Prior knowledge:
By secondary structure, the chain is α+β, with helices and mostly antiparallel strands. It contains nine helices and 15 strands. Among the domains are: 102-184, Gcn5-related N-acetyltransferase (GNAT) (Aminopeptidase, 3-Layer(aba) Sandwich), CATH 3.40.630; 196-334, Nucleoside Triphosphate Pyrophosphohydrolase (Alpha-Beta Complex), CATH 3.90.79.10. It has helices at 3-10, 13-27, 70-83, 125-141, 159-164, 240-252, 305-309, 312-316, 318-331, and strands at residues 33-34, 37-38, 106-108, 114-116, 146-152, 168-173, 176-182, 196-204, 210-216, 231-233, 256-267, 275-285, 297-304, 339-344, 351-356. Pfam families: NUDIX, Nudix_hydro.
Amino acid sequence: MEMKLFYQKAMSVSEIGPQMERLYSSSFSSYMTLPGVKFSQRFCSCRGISPKGSCSSLSNNGYQSKQANGSIRRDKLAAETYLSRINGTNGAIPNMHSREMRVLDAIDDQYGGVVVDHENLPSNPNAFTYILRFSLSHWTMKGKKGVWLKLPVERSELVPIAVKEGFEYHHAERGYVMLTYWIPEGPSMLPNNASHQVGVGGFVINDKNEVLVVQEKHCDPAFIDLWKIPTGFILESEEIFTGAVREVKEETGIDTEFIEVIAFRHVHNVAFEKSDLFFICMLRPLSTQIIVDDLEIQEAKWMPLVEFVEQPLIKEDCMFKKVIDICIARLGKRYCGLSSHQLVSKFDGKPSTLYYNVMETHNSYCIGD
């Protein structure tokens, strides 16, 4: 509702008193327009419920606000303090004491935005509504840009409130939904949700020239008879090479050692309209006894390489055939893949894995054979 109506319900103008009247007159003498926000000469409405010392305007690039001098800040503080003592009527604003009429707890991010502390959200949905509006007004005045609001599943009742105030869905996990709000004018500069999923496949061959292969329980009927290499998805915070070793172990019970990334495939608009990166890794077996994962795998075995490549689905598919050709070339030392190397970059100070090719200078054999 318009702030003017709110104050008319809470108290008459005569109850405000001359001091607050002077404050309102001096503080709301200008207009400002924000996306989805309408400001009157004396009251800020919609996304902001509190009178401000000044309603900042945004430049064309959306990143600069008008100056807020010391007296305006003092006026704003006085107005906020006065508002904190107001109790709602007819259940509209429950228990708006000073501890609840506040800016949401948040930390600044390195890009000029804020990340809301989801552990200290108001317990009452109505209180959350007004405090969220108050916070957006505050962050707008401060020249903030993006707002990140993480709502745990146990606070899911707050999701429609945030969406109504202009927040957008960013991504969701099992335990929470992440919403975002872009304050400046113009298109949002916040990064989109992850666009890719990452998969791995383990090409494991033993001293007998046998390939470790599986038949999956859940697959397209056209591939039900296909013997294929073990594959799966990378887990969160998992390296490509450790993911390949893990997937082989989970599906077949075989322990392996990572050698190289032989090749990788990139395809778009796959599951959930995401792009897909699939890394084929060559692994060395460290054990021989197969223990099948009954949940995913129908059967697993060691298959002679010549028999593996003669499967009709392998021979007739250009992608399958090329991958096998590359793996065979690697076995014959006519091809070198990408080995993993641990490095720390000064840009972020974090350890990372760089995959690259290392070859001896006097021949084409790969180091490490």
